[in-house]
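Hi all, long-time lurker, first post. I run a small reading group and we've been trying to get comfortable going from sequence to structure in the token notation. Rather than ask abstract questions, I figured I'd post a concrete chain and ask someone more experienced to write out its structure so we can walk through it together at our next meeting. Sequence below, copied exactly:
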Amino acid sequence: MSVSISTHVLDTAAGRPAAGVRVEVRRSDELLAANETDADGRITRLVDNLEPGTYALVFSPPSPFFTRVELQVELADGHHHIPLLVSPYGCATYRGS
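-- Answer (accepted) --
Happy to help. Here is the structure in token form:
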């Protein structure tokens, strides 16, 4: 069994992808992976070959208010796409495909 994660970050206030956003994958206090979004706001392979379980994705978005957004997710076997939509006034996420 293997878990992989991809993500993208969209700056909804600017109406464009958010480039250069640091995203970390953590389990408990252990940093497992980190990368920055590309010009299209994406990280196509944030991490591969994890065991199923509970993980935290930690985003450092381009927002004067939301300086750290942490999502705790329970991941089963397979690929998971976990995007973040962010603006100075709010943020949201959903389970992508």
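A couple of things your group might point at:
The chain has one domain: 3-93.
The mean pLDDT is 94.
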